Every structure is written in C-alpha cells, then in structure tokens.
Structure to design on (316 residues):
C-alpha cells in the first residue's frame, strides 16, 4: 500500500522514509539471531541499506532527524534504545555525527549513552577503546550498567551479599583491561541505575523508604554516572508490569514535590558528592570490615554492610 492510500496514522513519517526498501518486512523474530526480522512489535528499519550509488540513505535520514530534534527541543542528551541491535559501524557514525552537530552549536557536553542489555563482555564492545574504529571515529559516550543493575537492588534489599557488588567491579577491571586505559574511564563509560521503564516493578516499596534512599546513595557514590528513573525520587511504587512502572507524573498536582523525604535525602547526597572532589575524581575501592574484631573481609553474607573508601589524588 502506498502512503497516498494510507491513513495518516498508519503511514511512515518523515516522508523521506516512505520507501519499502528501507524496511525488512519479514515478520517477528529475535533481532540478535535474525537481523532481517522485526524485533517483535518494533518495525525494523534497514539502517545499512545501500542505494545504487553505494550511499546509505537511511543512515543519513536518521542522523538528520535526530539533529532536527536537538535543534527543535534543545535537548542535552540521548538515551539510545537497544543499541546492541544495530551495527557497530553505524553506532560509531551516529555517535560522531551527533557529537559534531552539538559541538558546532555550542553544546560541548552533549551526552549519548546506549542500552546494551547484556553481559560485561558484550558491553565492552561499546565502551573504551572499542568506541573508536580504525578511521578514528568515536562512537557513543557510554552504556547502561546492566551488570551492576542485575545485583545492586538485591544487595540493597538484603537478598544478596555485598561481596557481589565488589565482584562486579573486579570483574570489570579484568574483562576490560584491554579497553579501558584507566580507572577514571570506567566511571565515564557506565550509567548506573536501580529501576527503569523496562522492569515489572519499581525499586521502591511503600513502607521501606530507607531502602530506596540507600539505593540512591549507592548509585551516586559508586563509580559510574548515576541515573535516577523519574518518579523514584517522588516515591512512585508501581508494580505488576511495564505499564505499572510508567505512571504519569507530570500532570499530577505538585508532581515534583521538593519536600518529599526521598527527594530531600537525594538532594543532600548529591550536594555532598558535588562538594567533595574525591567523590568525583578519587579512586574507589571496597573496605574490608569485621564483625568480630578479628577477621576482616568484604561481607559475603546477606544483609552485610557495603563499605566504600575513596582515595583522593592531589595535584601539586
């Protein structure tokens, strides 16, 4: 069916994408196993399509559309969904194109981070030196820290021992030793979180306010770029499915309550983090503690204490 015969809501926009060659149209499937199939309800675009002149029109259209979005809405960052389902080649080109346009209009710190819902080894393909190809093109800035997310909420809830969190960072140091040139880079390339729109319940459970405050504190003080899902700071607690964790917030009266106890606690932790240089630039390591005054170790039992130490570096 041509766009002329379609209902406006059933057609493809912008008009530049109204070309059958730009889509796969081969049914549903797992995007990682079958690159020519749709990702379930998401219509998969053929981002690597080449025309007769050996150009990539879909890539160009996508980049221009996102450049227009920046100009139209003055946004400061992009979260790139399902980054691992597009070719590394285009991930590099897209990240570099966005960086070029934002710097040209004065946005020196525009941030791009991708969702790589996978293991440490998979994420390592998108961060550090792997974000630069042989032509010197730099890709996106960072990736969501799923290895930490898989464990941190359970540690905060007392379902896993604190040693599991220490293991995340020790495993990262080992698995990415060829991709990260320093500890500081690891902090720049990972965006940490405790809940998101893709989960079936929010972290916060009414009556357990201290747990969500501890979780927010852990995000802000642990190595990485902390990301608080909207509404967590206001005590939203939906559960049961993805729709339940995507509660509308903006049209509610006093939606952003700056007196909410969770918000107040978060603000205090952020202020401390901002004012203490060591928290932003120091070296993180896990403190061994003792319950009996004799044996010292990182607690390997549920409900143990997660203790951090940050070594300050001074320039002279």
């Amino acid at each position: 069916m041509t766009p002329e015969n379609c209902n406006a809501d059933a057609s493809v926009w912008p008009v530049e994408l109204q070309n059958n060659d730009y889509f796969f149209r081969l049914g549903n499937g797992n995007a990682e196993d079958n690159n020519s199939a749709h990702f379930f309800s998401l219509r998969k675009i053929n981002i690597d399509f080449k025309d007769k002149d050996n150009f990539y029109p879909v890539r160009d259209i996508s980049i221009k559309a996102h450049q227009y979005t920046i100009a139209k809405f003055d946004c400061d960052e992009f979260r790139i969904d399902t980054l691992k389902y597009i070719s590394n080649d285009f991930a590099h080109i897209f990240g570099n194109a966005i960086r070029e346009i934002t710097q040209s209009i004065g946005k020196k710190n525009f941030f791009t981070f991708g969702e790589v819902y996978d293991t440490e080894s998979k994420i390592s393909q998108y961060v550090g030196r792997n974000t630069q190809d042989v032509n010197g093109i730099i890709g996106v800035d960072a990736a969501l820290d799923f290895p930490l997310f898989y464990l941190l909420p359970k540690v905060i809830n007392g379902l896993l021992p604190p040693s599991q969190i220490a293991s995340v960072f020790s495993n990262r140091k080992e698995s990415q030793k060829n991709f990260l040139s320093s500890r500081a880079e690891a902090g720049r390339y990972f965006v940490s979180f405790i809940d998101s729109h893709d989960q079936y319940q929010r972290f916060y459970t009414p009556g357990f306010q201290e747990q969500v405050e501890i979780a927010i504190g852990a995000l802000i003080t642990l190595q990485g770029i902390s990301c608080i899902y909207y509404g967590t700071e206001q005590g939203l607690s939906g559960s049961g499915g993805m729709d339940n964790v995507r509660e509308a917030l903006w049209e509610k009266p006093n939606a952003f309550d700056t007196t909410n106890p969770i918000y107040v606690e978060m603000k205090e932790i952020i202020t401390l983090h901002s004012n203490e240089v060591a928290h932003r630039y120091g070296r993180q390591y896990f403190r061994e503690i003792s319950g009996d005054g004799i044996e010292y170790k990182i607690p390997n039992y549920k409900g143990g204490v997660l203790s951090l130490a940050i070594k300050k570096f001074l320039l002279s």
